[in-house]
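Researcher: Quick one. two chains, 464 residues in total.
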Amino acid sequence: MSNFKRADGRAADELRPVTMKVGVLKKADGSAMVSLGDTVAVAAVYGPRELYPKHLQNNERAILQCNYTMAPFSTKERVRPGPSRRSVEISKVTREALEPALFLEEFPRSTIDVYVVILQANAGTRTAGINAASLALADAGIPMRGLVTAIAAGKIEDTYVLDLTGDEEEITACDLPIAYIPREKKFTLIQMDGDIPPEDVKNIIKLAVKGCETLHEHQRKALLGKWSKEGS
Amino acid sequence: MGILKKERDFVLPGDKIVESLDYLPGKNCFRDGNSIYSKRVGLVSFKGRVIEVIPLTGMYIPEPGDMIIGEIKDVQFSGWAVDINSPYQAFLPLSGVREFIDPAKMDLSKVYGIGELIYAKVTSVGPSKGVNLSMRDPSARKFKNGRIIKITPVKVPRVIGKKGSMINLIKERTACRIYVGQNGVIWLQGENEPLAAKAIKMIEEMSHIEGLTNYIENLLKNEGKIKGQVMK
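Model:
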């Protein structure tokens, strides 16, 4: 643990440089851009708006539709546009990570559409996407129980590391992304690939929660930034 | 403990406003345990023991009593479908029209045709947001000529000003007839339409500036003069 060094010189529990911006797209009802190191995600929110086809409408609540896409140029190898097994899965977990934070029952029969596009990918795209989507939802004025933050953590050799890069992802014992609502202290997403003992999982989650709390501060600053420019 | 935010403080979704059972959550707030939290990005407002958040962003959600500007989208057997710039389409029933109409003998599109604009009152909003309109209000009317501009619905109170001070100023200086719908749709008619539209757009953009009324007054004075000279 003592002489552990990461390739980019970060401490084990340090995030990559974070930038967050709210209101980057003019046409969308809400939008945000989040970048963690080389990973860049843009999210746009439309709605609440009328939902078609009508049979999807729910008379009690709005439905949330999420769409995660990687731009063809986001990685070294071209990403084939259109839905893939991976993007369908990530769209689903993004939706499930955001849904518990929203008061969907306030907008019966309508839909809230969230589009996440990854412009540049270097691991941690789903978590960056969730962070951006949560900001965009707040920007769109959708009632929320709290902001959602997400980050991945893992274990390399004997050290728990936060916010893995692409290179680190290849050597880590496990990659464990979480989404977390800091106000409620509740998890809305926990995924894991890799094989590690249960104590390690606990410790990794603890580390990720710490990362989420830091990210939450960044999110607050980003939202304040948009409206302090505009004032009160 | 106690009251954590002051009147007009900026809050984000999930921000704690008070920690006390003496207060009640009003619009855009919710209670969780002992505390009241904000649901949206906005400004805190204390109304006696009720806490509200005035949103800074978001869609128009109809409420009974609102005066709105809508566009006729469809003529049906017993009324009209009206687009009210909201996630929900509204319905203007035959009973909501001043004159007596027998749908068997008369063509409803002669009364209000598709594409026509009306200034109407929201009479009821159902549990699943079925919106009903009425023209049985002294100020309700159909618009001919003129132009429509749209602004963010949350900025409507700023355009109207305290007791209508802002809108009256624009009406006076531009000699335009102006109707402002609660749904963010504004109808203008008069020689100086472009100037009035410009002033309203400016209010929307700079709604946070103090002494906005003076600023707009100057704008109207200067631009009005230039226009007068050109016309001579």
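The interface with chain A takes residues 8, 10, 12-14, 28, 30, 32, 37, 39-41, 43, 55-59, 61, 87-89, 127-129, 154, 207-209 of chain B (CB under 8 Å).
Researcher: Thanks, that's what I needed.
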